[in-house]
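Wed. Picked up where I left off yesterday with Alpha/beta hydrolase. The coffee machine is broken again, so keeping this brief.
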Amino acid sequence: MDVTGTAGETEKLGNSTWQTVPTRMISAGGVDFAYRELGSGGTPVVFLTHLAAVLDNWDPRVIDGIAASRRVITFGNRGIGASTGKTPTTVEEMAEDAVTFIRALGLEEVDLIGFSLGGMVAQAVVEKHPGLVRRLILAGTSPAGGTGLDKVARLTFYDIFRGAFTRQDPKQFMFFPRSSAGKRAGKAFLARLGERKVDRDKEISVPSFRAQLKAIKRWGKRPAADLSVVRQPVLAINGDADRIVPSRNTEELGRRLPDCEVVLYPQSGHGAIFQFHEDFVRRAVRFLS
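Structure written out below (tokens, as returned):
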């Protein structure tokens, strides 16, 4: 196992912020994983990110808010951003790579926060490695075989086109409603994503993006898993009008998981945890405590 840092090696992780924390690399399973770690205390919280996202797509307010009381770890899975290797085309393979990364850090138990595709990966981790996970936060995601996952690719490309046509970031359309409040929230979110000026991650490659889309489609076609066997407490959270991963999937998680709290933010979509980041951080910290 090899662990290196690219900047600020003498900076204490507990004093870092998302804007300044160094990007590090760890080698495991034939992959060099890029990751960032900050905060301290309690069971480590590992973040699993969304379609097309790299390290710099996490909202700094969410990361810093949770890292104020917990050890937080974010990483690029195989082939994503600066991490090496070829991106898998199934959620299950992505989950195994995530477990490889977690164990390479010497962690025996973690909490998981999975957003969108990351929430699918989190479920696959718990399914195969239940002893590794203490608590789960599943945001804007779906169980296997969920509703509307066959439309994710079409909606994503449509929003990419809308972004190009209007010279806006596609996340304005993917994550936020077209209401005045939604537009303001989107602009504020995108401004926060730009706060880190140095040591930024690489953008996702086209082959990796296509592999992720294929994995989501396959997850949608997979037979429904028996979620009644999941004994970990779960917080399932979304906007009430998510058009990318329909909100009814969050409600379905609430019905099928034995110990699950469901939160649907009003008048919000796929990026509800960023639109309501202050409330989300309070709920997440309370839940993980």
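Quick read: The chain has one domain: 3-288.
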